[in-house]
Amino acid sequence: MREHGGNLDLAQQRFGGRAEDWIDLSTGINRLPYPVGEVSSRAWNALPSRSEIEALHQAARHAYRSRAAVVALGGAQAAIQLLPQFARPGCARILAPTYNEYAGVLSAAGWEVEEVSALEALAGADLAIVVNPNNPDGRCHPSKDLLELLPRVGRLAIDESFADMDPQLSLAPEADRPGLLILRSFGKFYGLAGLRLGFALGNESDIARLASMSGPWPVSGAAIAIGCRALRDDAWAEATSARLARDCVRLDAMVQSQGWTLVGGTPLFRLYETPDALAAQERLARRRIWSRVFAREPTWLRLGLPGSESEWTRLAEALAR
Q: What is the pTM of this model?
């Protein structure tokens, strides 16, 4: 497995403790998740029907403000795994640094992969990848710039896994344009990563092909039931977006005493420049708080946002020490 957050087993091996003793801030997953409520026995016992899957697709169109074709998948990662199969291997350019699965998956499938640092450098690629907002630095690109790039590439895949808090940033309403594919993660904003649910939005032919590759039951009945409920809960989404925006300011202020500098981030995670990220990670880990470091950038430390007040208190105490 490539380097990722959420590797709490590594934290336990190095620093001890049970999983429940830890506050895992190494991911960008909302730590105050959507309240799932009751799930019917049918959702667990029966194969999902076509009408139930279509209801989930309609809920996704509602949440993402799109009328494009959509397919539900086992997380945005499932779409990434299928992406190389859209066409014969060619030149894939990835706006980097970014989520490392794209380069690995495409390279393994025989694509020639180039990482570029500027949006305009993606032009001419058979497949262009943009994560917007970017992970891990939160860099964002206006819709206008991305749409101008679209006719200059074979296909443009935009990963909007962290776009829930900023609907104006999303190109999901434009996803029916030829050559444009939008990937969305459900688990991050709704805090239910273990449900393994995500979506791809695009034109009819691309989504039909993805649906064919993913098989007849790509997501579980429980994911359908919970996803339909959550994606239509506009009040929860608005309140959660407002809370996360406030909590970003709170976290940035909390780490000022450490001399860390904000590099960037989103309302679900913050990226800081530190004198020594491994040392900072170890100091937090000894208080059972896990963070994310990057082999390529030894001064970068990424922190997700604490959830409960007790988690905020523990982080403040760990930083104070």
A: 0.96
